[in-house]
Structures are given as C-alpha cells and as structure tokens.
Amino acid sequence: MNAPVAAPPATFDCRQAFAETLIELARADERIVAVCNDSVGSSNLGGFQKAFPDRLVNVGIAEQNMVGVAAGLSNGGFVPFVCCASPFLTGRALEQVKADIAYNGYHVVLCGMSPGMAYGELGPTHHSIEDLSWLRAITDLSIVVPADPAQTSAAVRWSVEYGKPSFLRVGRTKVPSVSEGQAEPFVFGKANRLREGRDLTIVVTGILVSRALEAAEALAAQGISARVVNIATIAPLDEAEIIAAARETGAIVTVEEAVVSGGLGAAVAEVVVRHHPVAMRLLGVPGFAPTGDTAFLLDHFGLNRDGIVRAALELRG
Amino acid sequence: MSLEFSAEVPTPEGLSNLSPSDRAARLSDIARAVRRSVVRMIDSARAGHIGGDLSVTDILTTLYFGVLKLDPAEPLAPGRDRFILSKGHCAAALYSALALRGFIDPALLPTFMKPLSVLNGHPNRRKVAGVEANTGPLGHGLPIAVGSAIASCLSGRNWQTFVVTGDGELQEGSNWEAAMSAGHRGLDNLCVIVDRNRLQQGARTEDTNRLDPLTDKWAAFGWEAVEVDGHDHAALYELFTRPRSGKPLAIVANTLKGKGVSFIEDRVEWHHKVPSAEQVALALEELR
C-alpha cells in the first residue's frame, strides 16, 4: 500500500500581489504613477493601465530615459513606480539610479521585475544576479526583496509611505507563502525569524526562503537545529538579528539568487566579521548560467534543500 | 560679496513691462554681473569650468531674470517653473544667477568648491535652494525635464520646464531617448536650449563626434527646432516666451565658449583652465 502523498503547497507569482496592491493604493493616492519600458505585460501592469491610463508612462525601450523621467515626475510631486525587468533597470540605467534617484533623494520606487534567474532559458543577458551587489554600493537607496505575496504587498504599501528612494525586487518565480504565523509579514529594516534554532542560522532572501525552511526541516531530521532568518530588507540590514545569529548559533549559511560578491552573503559577512566572527558559507550563483529553466538552474547551483543541507553539514563538520 | 549683489535685481514680473530694448539692456547688465561673479568664484576656488560658464551666462540670465516663474521665499512651490542645468559642470554660472535672484546668500559664493561648502563643483538640490536636479554626469538633465513636463500636464498645474544642455553632451545617447519621448508626447511645455559653443573638453565637437545638422536632428525627433544667437537677450526672451502648441521647443543657441573675455573666447584649452591673478584682473576689466 502506497503512503499518501501530501499535495505540494500552493505557489504564487509575487507580481500579482504587487499589481493588485499598486492599483488599490493608486485609487486612493493620485500621486502614484507607473513608469515602464514597453513592459506593461511583463510587469503585470495591464490592470493599472486599464484603471489609470493617464498615469501609466510607457517610455518605450529606453531605460535611461525611463529612470530620468521618474526623477522628473518625483520633482513634480508624483510617486513613480518604475517597473522594468531587473537586469535592464539596474544594469542599463545604473548611473541614472545612482545620480537621478539616489543622489537627488527622489522618492521613486524602482521595481526590479523578474529578477535573479527568473528568465531562465533566456540566459545571462536576461538574468539579474548582479543587482543586489550593484545597488548595495549606492548609498541612500534602500533595497527590499520580498519572499512571498504577503511580503510583496506589505512592501509596496511601505514604499509609498517611505518618502525616499527604494528598490523592490519583485519575483516572477512562483513561491509558496512563508509569512504564515508572522504578526507582520514585512517591517522595513527588520528580519523575520521564521524558525528558531541553536546549531546554525540560515540567512536567506527572496524566492529561496521556502527552500531554506525545507533544509532546516531536513537538518532537524539529522539532529541539527537550524535557525532560519528571512532578510527582506537587504539595505539597511538588520544588524542586530545577524549579530544574534552569530552569537547564539555560532555558524551562518547565507542563501541568495544572486552573485555572492557584494550581495546578501557579503552584507552579512561584513557585520559578522566586525562584531562576532563565526564560520560562514555563502551560497549563490557562481557565474554566468548555462541554458536551463529557473528550477533547473537553482538546483544546478545547489540553491535548494540539498545544497543548503550540504553547506550546513560542512559548517558543522 | 560685491556691490552688484546688493543692488536691486529685477524679476521676470518687473521686466515684462519694459520695452524690448530696455529689457535687453537690463539683462545685459545682469549678465555682466554673473560673468564677473563666475570669474571671482573660479579665482577663489582655483578650479571650475570657465569656458562653459561664460557661454551659458546669457541663456541663464534671460531665463532667471526674464522668464522663470519662481519665488525665492518658496523655492519648492508646487506650481513653479522648472529649470534644469544639464551641463552641471557650469555650476558657477548657475550659483551666481541663483544668488542674484535671491536663492543663495551671496556670501557663500567665495566658498565655491571649498571643503564642505554647499556649493559643490556640480549642483546639489539637497543643499542648495533653487537647484532642481543634481546633474554632473552628462545626458541626465533632459530625461528629468521630460518627467517634469509630463508631471506638469498630469498635475494640471501647467508649469513650464526649461533645460540647458551642452552641445558635446548631446553625444550621450540618453538625450535622444528623451528627445524621442518628448516629441512623441508633444510636450509643448518643455524647452531645451543647447549651448552650442562647438567646443568640448578635448577638441571641437565637429572634429570629435559630429553633431550637425543639429536643428534637423531635433526636428526629426518631433520638436520645433530653431537656431538663435545665444548671447542675444532680446531674441532669447522672444523665443522663451513665444506661445507654443503641440511640440516641444529645441533652441540651438549659438554661443562662444568663454564669451566676454577676449583671451578665453573660443579656445579649447579654457574648458577648465584656471586664470592667473593677472588674467583674473584682465577678465574683470573686460567685464566691467
């Protein structure tokens, strides 16, 4: 007799929560406008366009102008949401992000859509694995990476109130909810401790949070107690939570869908080395990806339950 | 700092009642004061971009004292006209105009580019009232101006947006992304003025990366495009205040880099050369 197979958890595209929340907020707040680069479909802005045709500024395939136009709209009293595939927003328009938005201090919400390796088979030109590193180097720009629809929605609400420049990494890869049981799914600048643990901490962000929780479950079966901390605010980082992880669990594995040079792992290491040095493993994307869909590539690079477990076991050596 | 800053300085409202020739004469006086201020600031800082400052001065003067609806008492008034200096390296001319117009304390001008001064080598809106955008890297001002012009329409406040670019700066592709979108949208509340001094940092523009036929380029992007003598205050005033309909306006303002100081005019080495004490005295004498 076969054992009953548990149904896989329902998964969600964070762009849906993003678009629904944006439309809801825009109904009450006339300052909200969307700016995009021929990306109405890929940024899931069809509903916004239908509801507010005049408040969707599609500049065409021109990302430098797109970010500059957003700065000008902010100067004119609006709150622009720049919606653009993350590689082109953060790569092509990086100087505009630095100079026009961050240095000017304009309240613009830069929305990096379909980040990481969401465009799997389209290849490294369309992957955005460098965005966290590039943007972390820009001061006066907050970086938020929601892990599920609840965090996405809460982060969109926060960004309208924030009043300063921010970057939201809005996932396209379907993910299960990881916010159940959280009193507040997203508080700016605060980490979410999703699972207690004593032996090590897995610090993780974005679409990989559910995989970290799976890894912690597998480690528990081997008698290892792993804490799981979801970092939705990469900058500014919740340093107190990182220091607590180092002090209380003595080892840290970081996991991100990005290059590790300069990303979440590097941010965590910068805190750990200053306050309480412990052994770490930094998991991420090691370089330009081969051909493959997103799920294949995440597995290929060990950004899954087994890869995280392997790194944890090495650390506990 | 000097007498001219304590003298009564006209506002666009005041100048609008004058005859064209009287208005041009007043603007010419102010432009000379701006140029003197530029020379003193660069002398004090021992740094700066004197050639471009002097070529753009008449454009800035006509805008700030003849055209722009601004109130130094409320620099962020929602319906104010917007001016963006895309060629941000000519900050000394901008600061001088802002000081004369009442946005900056003239006593700050000698601190230009000194350690911890608010008057950076490129303008910073977070530190200096009247600055609309932090420019410096070239090709950034026009896209921001396009956004401002769209905001003017969307908000219903109907302010005018003016942006000055250098000519060499137009070698940056971002300008043409913005030009295309402004033409496409028919932003007739937007005016770009190209400071066409035909020199860039290292050589003549036409020997480096040809810009001509420049007015034709703007026209091809859907703009009303005209050429003007960029030192003719009356002609600039007429163009800035001419009613527009349906198209953004591109003014290719033919200028002399270093205008007003004979030994600086139209010489490539004066892009950011600093005059000696003797040359400062000579320049101020010529600008009396």
What does this structure look like?
The complex is a heterodimer of chains A (317) and B (288). Chain A is an alpha/beta fold and 317 residues long. Chain A has 2 domains: 157 residues, Rossmann fold (3-Layer(aba) Sandwich); 125 residues, Rossmann fold. Helix content of chain A is 40%, strand content 17%. A 7-stranded mixed sheet of chain A has the order 2-1-3-4-6-5-10, sandwiched between helices. In chain A, helix 2 links the parallel strand 1 and strand 2. In chain A, helix 3 runs parallel beside helix 5, helix 8 packs across helix 12 and helix 9 packs across helix 10. The model of chain A has no long low-confidence stretch (mean pLDDT 96). By secondary structure, chain B is an alpha/beta fold. Chain B has 11 helices and 5 strands. The radius of gyration of chain B is 18 Å and the shape is globular. Chain B starts with a helix and ends with a helix. The mean pLDDT of chain B is 95. Chains A and B meet through helix 3 and helix 5 of A and helix 6 and helix 7 of B. Chain B: Its cofactor is thiamine diphosphate. Chain B: It comes from Kaistia hirudinis. Chain B: GO terms for molecular function: transketolase activity. Chain B: It holds the Pfam family Transketolase_N. Chain B: Keywords: Thiamine pyrophosphate, Transferase.
Topology, element by element:
The complex is a heterodimer of chains A (317) and B (288).
Chain A: H1 14-28, E1 32-36, H2 46-51, E2 56-58, H3 63-75, E3 79-85, H4 86-92, H5 94-103, E4 109-113, H6 131-136, E5 142-144, H7 149-162, E6 166-170, E7 192-195, E8 200-204, H8 209-221, E9 226-230, E10 233-235, H9 239-249, E11 251-255, H10 264-275, E12 279-283, H11 294-300, H12 305-316
Chain B: H1 3-6, H2 12-15, H3 20-45, H4 50-67, E1 82-85, H5 91-100, H6 141-155, E2 161-166, H7 173-185, E3 190-196, H8 205-208, H9 214-220, E4 224-229, H10 233-241, E5 249-254, H11 277-286
Parallel strand pairs in B: 1-2, 2-3, 3-5, 4-5
